[in-house]
Amino acid sequence: MYSDLLNALPEVFGLANFLAVIIGVIAGIVVGAMPGLSATMAISVLVPFTFGLEPLVALGLMAGIYNGAMYGGAIPAVLLRIPGTPAAVATTFDGYPMAQRGEGGFALQVAVVSSSIGGIASAFALMLLAPPLSKVTLLFGPAEVFWVAVFGLASIIFLLGGSPVKGLISACFGVFVSVIGSDPIFGSDRFTFNQLELLDGISIVILLVGLYALPPVIDLLETPLKTGVSEDKLGTEPIWKALPRMKGFWKTWIRGSLIGIWIGILPGAGGSMAAFMSYNEARRASKHPERWGEGEPEGVAAAETANNADTASALIPALTLGIPGTAVAAVMLGGLLVHGLQPGPMLFRDNPDVVFGFMWQFLFGAILLVLLGGSLATNSFARLLNLPRPLLGSIIIVLMLIGVYSIHGRMFDVYLMLGFGAVGWVMDKLKFPLPPVVLGLILGAFAEENLRLALRIGRGDWGVLFRNTTSLVLVALTIAVIVGPGLKKRILDARKARTAD
Amino acid sequence: MLKLIQKGALAGAMILAAGAALAEYPEKPIEVVVGYSAGGGTDVMARTAAPFIEKYLGGGASLVVKNVPGASGQIGVTEVAGAKPDGYTIGTFNLPGMMARTIDREAGYDRDSFTYLANVVNDPNVIVTSKDSGLDTMEKLIAAAKADPGAITVGMSSLGGDDHFALIKLEGLTETEFTIVPFKGSAPARTALMGGHVAMGILNISEVASFQDELNLLGVATEERSDFAPDLPTFREQGIDLINGSMRGFVAPAGLPEDVVAKLDGAFEQMAGDPEFLKAMADTANPVEVVTGDDFKQLTSDLYDLANKVWQETPWN
Q1: For residues B231-270, b (16+ Cβ closer than 10 Å) or e, as one string?
Q2: What is the 3-state secondary structure (H, E, C) of A47-108?
Q3: I want to staple A63 with a disulfide (CB 3.0 to 4.6 A). Which of A186, A330, A361, B41 is the partner?
């Protein structure tokens, strides 16, 4: 099984394929560094443009962007205390105070090295875990897949943080969008209003571009951000000179990597949660927790390791079960499907070169991060923050329109995307979370189709849903996710009340 | 004077028009509308066939494949039905799906909307069972289905497709009853079979030929054994007269000029005998069975009648 892994390697070093990763990483850092623009946005805008490319070129670009963006978010987080991506929030805690002390350059170097280590660990986890797990997926029939979808929906609603009610509303909107189109069993039309274009349902890419790209662009145009970055805050030195100062971080790196990988595999939770958890655990383990928040480099290391360590591992459920756990994984899955890669046990048998090549690209993307984002480039990336924002916004809008139009070559999709953009903008303003919409669309369709197939297999008997261990484990996990946070809060409150007495 | 110019212009126009009519078809690129996205079975067939059609049309003919995916090929085929019948728009056509769609929903075309050029691929149905089911012969399968009608679950790629019609035929021939589990496409159906979540499956030979270790293959719905699995007996050999398959071919809008039809049919017939073409199709797991012109039209008509009969008796939605 792992020999295919090595066989895929030569292809990865093909000029175009390797160049794609390099360009992807640089583009990812740039996008990540722009506050408001996320990896999800960048990849969803990109996917339609990759239709005509060779699979490994397209996937290399995506892998590079994903890795790059997760680090790029640290640049404004450190220099301006504005997280470039949601996952970089925890990076501001210690990164910004460091920059205030004139150690911004060192903070960014810690960030890039940690990001790279997290990414490498994650790529290895993907390589080692996905192939054996894909065999286990044969255990997942319609009943089990239904429960995985329910579990995923429950986690995204209850674990995302913020208000579960708003999460639920967002998810319901996504699930509603998923029923538009042909009935999965009978093929009859639902909510299509005799539009031939709606018969296939709403393409995830159209929804993603609308929801994820339009609101931040409008934001970008709305708020003129002062982005003056003065050189003196950077205090740069070559990265090899900075490395010895990081040698005490290895425990934090390992811890952050493991947390990131685990959170990545779980559906629902994403990079920001991994970063927070890693940061908290690292502070708890620290000998001098009082220095945290005042500019402790290890805090930057903890956050940045974890938010890169969930990148590749988030693809494990996507590649094996076809069920993406996060919005980014959903876009990447869309990209894989476009290139004819069907997730599941057959993926590794039918297309080993592409799949394993893609995993290698993740690894090299993570390694390239140090080289490209490391020594000299950090300075230039910091200057990116001074780019005129209206210019940037208009470029992105043009790319969105062309990209969405090129999927099927019809204006209908463009209008649909703009409609979703308007909805997304309103939701954003009202602080409704967007990821549940995306996962609602994907997992809602999964849940419906598989529930109905399972009931057909059980000849109408609902007991078929609880007939084996896999199903029961998933049911238990779902219940834990729903009642867990409330229970934890109650216990903590009770303990607080007792100590208050 | 003015009249003279008018007459001259008219004569000139007529000469030009006559010239155009006399010019050899095709004098510009022919668009091939494929109702599925690039890389699927139908798309592969169109792209494999295109260079051979170009070769046999001769005179520097060129075919341009255009993918118009969506709604199981319906959007593309509707576009072909409504195109100008001049021979410069042809499209791919799938049976029995394209006909079933005219029965189970309102389609923008019917069986008289097309000039039938050639069917190229006939991918026969195969009955498979999961290894855990223990049903490793047709005899055991039929006996089990008779013992408890509806107890055997049958995974297939969709309702109203060739798999579905094969099962209906089987039920009629053997007086049995099965429970249909229509997955979204054949790959998930096959995976569910490998995991033992459904007992039996009806798929096409190109989809299971390389899975003989993971699944029990019980028989193929052809008159003669298939080259893709020469050891697999036909149903006829096993006493069940079941012939069925998924067909893919080419159509043009109805009302195509006679000479253009003749030219295209000729090209398809020559292609059918080209060993290079046959090898290219075998390499992409496409069983070739070329049927041209009126025979293809008759085939479509027969399948329409079958689908209609099934729909009257057991509508699937």
Answers
A1: ebebbbeeebebbbbbbbbbbbbeebeeebbebbbebbee
A2: HHHHCCCCHHHHHHHHHHHHHHHHHHCHHHHHHHCCCCCHHHHHHHHHHHHHHHCCCHHHHH
A3: A361
* Structure tokens that stand for A132 in this block: 């054996």
Cα–Cα dist A140/A142, whole Å:
7
Residue A455: pLDDT band by 50, 70, 90 thresholds?
very high
Instruction: Report pLDDT digits (tens) over A255-296.
Output: 999 988 888 887 666 667 788 888 888 888 888 888 888 888
- Residues B184, A449: C-beta atoms closer than 8 Å: yes
Mean pLDDT of A466-495: 85
Select, from the ranges A469-473, B86-90, B199-203, the one with the highest average predicted confidence (pLDDT). Answer: B199-203
Q: Using CA atoms, how far apart are residues A163 and A154, in angstroms rounded to an integer?
A: 13
CB nearest A185 (choices: B105, B182, B187) = B182
CB contact under 8 A, B179 and A183: no
Instruction: Calculate mean pLDDT across residues A399-423.
Output: 86
State the best of A186, A351, A468 to mutate against chain B, taking most chain B CBs within 10 Å. A186
Chain B residue with Cα closest to A55: B39
pLDDT score recorded for residue B18:
43
Q: Which of A456, A459, A467 to mutate to test the interface with B (most CBs of B within 10 A)?
A: A456
- Domain spanning B124-238, CATH architecture: 3-Layer(aba) Sandwich (3.40)
> How many domains does chain A contain in total?
1
Q: Residue B191 and residue A345: Cβ atoms within 8 Å?
A: yes
Q: What's the CA gap between B132 and B148, in Å, rounded?
A: 18
- Å between B69 CA and nearest CA of chain A: 7
* A101 lies in some domain: yes
What is the domain partition of chain B in residue ranges? 27-122+246-313, 124-238
Is residue A479 assigned to a domain?
Answer: no
More confident residue, A222 or A308: A308
- A142·B192 Cβ contact <8 A: yes
The answer to whether the B27-122+246-313 and B124-238 domains have the same CATH topology is: yes
B171-178 long-range contacts, CB within 8 A, separation 24+ = B173/B240, B173/B241, B173/B242, B174/B142, B174/B145, B174/B240, B175/B146, B176/B142, B176/B145, B176/B146, B176/B149, B177/B145, B177/B149, B177/B150, B178/B145, B178/B150, B178/B152, B178/B153, B178/B154
Residue A183 within any structural domain of the chain: yes
CA distance B26 to chain A (A): 27
A230 has pLDDT over 70: no
Residue B17 pLDDT > 70:
no
Residues of chain B with Cβ-Cβ distance to A149 below 8 Å are none
What domain range includes position A86? 3-467
When pLDDT is cut at 50, 70 and 90, the band that residue A185 belongs to is confident
Averaged pLDDT of chain A? 82
Please report, for residues A132, A332, A435, B18, the alpha-carbon distance to residue A269 in angstroms, rounded to integers and kept in the order given.
Answer: 23, 16, 10, 71
The yes/no answer on whether domain B27-122+246-313 falls in CATH 3.20.20.370 is no
- Contact yes or no for B75 and A196 at CB 8 A: yes
Chain A residues lying within 8 Å of B158, measured CB to CB: 187
